[in-house]
Amino acid sequence: MTQLNHFSLDVQKKLQNYVYALIDPRPDKQHALKGTVFYIGRGNGDRVFQHEAEAHRGKAHGEYAKLERILAIERDGYHVKRMIISWGLTTSEAQVVEGAMIDFLKILDQGSYGAVWNNRMPGYHNDDQDQAHLPYSTVEEINDRLAMPPVSLQDLKDQHIGLVTLGGSSDPQDANNYQLLGRAAFNSDKVARRSFGNWVIGKNEDKIKYLLVVTHGDYVIVGAFRIVKPGNIIDNPVKYQRRKIYWRDSPTEKGQPLATNDYVQPVTEINGIKVGPNMRLTDVWFNAQQSGLNVVDNK
Q1: What's the chain's average pLDDT?
Q2: CA neighbor of 88 nearest in space, from 134, 123, 122, 121
Q3: What is the bridge-based pairing of β-strands 81-89 and 137-138?
Q4: Of 33, 164, 257, 263, which is most buried by a Cβ count within 10 Å?
């Protein structure tokens, strides 16, 4: 399995706060162990992956032993094993779980105790963990299970598709990409605000039938729209021989909605292929911009 170094945005949203363990996978033949837990931590986002990056940059104050162990593991030809112990937690819940795990490991270490599991009942898990059947897992396993199902861009055949890629936004009124994830946000006004406006398209590429709105980098599909009636197309022959397409009656009607059903119709399928909600686009073969519109002609 490929070594993971990043959780996609959709997985980060599901994980929320989590508690994790770093494991030295080198066998301890003296104690007949397959490996050793050497660090317990908590965080969100990509926190679990940051320790190895810190080790590669150089030692951090007060954490030399942890970082040196990471480098030693790699020098011996191994990789640090990262386990998510509990997830879907609030900040305070993660603090309690982290503290309990650290204290438990101190009991085992200082008392030279082993551990044999004789509990008849499994430990308590929150609803998200139970539904995903993932009480604890490696970061690779949990990412595979929680990641949104993929849809291939190449499967959306025989359609002209405008792919709107959302990077960051400087407008404080805009929802950020993280807030656009999930069933409730799909095709919402928040998505429309970020994705509809004045887009420059190629001179002969005004036959777009569908628009897909995706987050930059992870390509999570947050919006899908069928073009019912294109907005005004303004010729701009001087600059790049291109046109600007306005998804309003005119570029001056700022008081009008950014997108209405008169111009686009929200959809969840294109050519019989489900595209949302909670789907991730794959096979994006061009270098999509941080923010912008690319036209994909599958014909």
Answers
A1: 77
A2: 134
A3: antiparallel
A4: 164
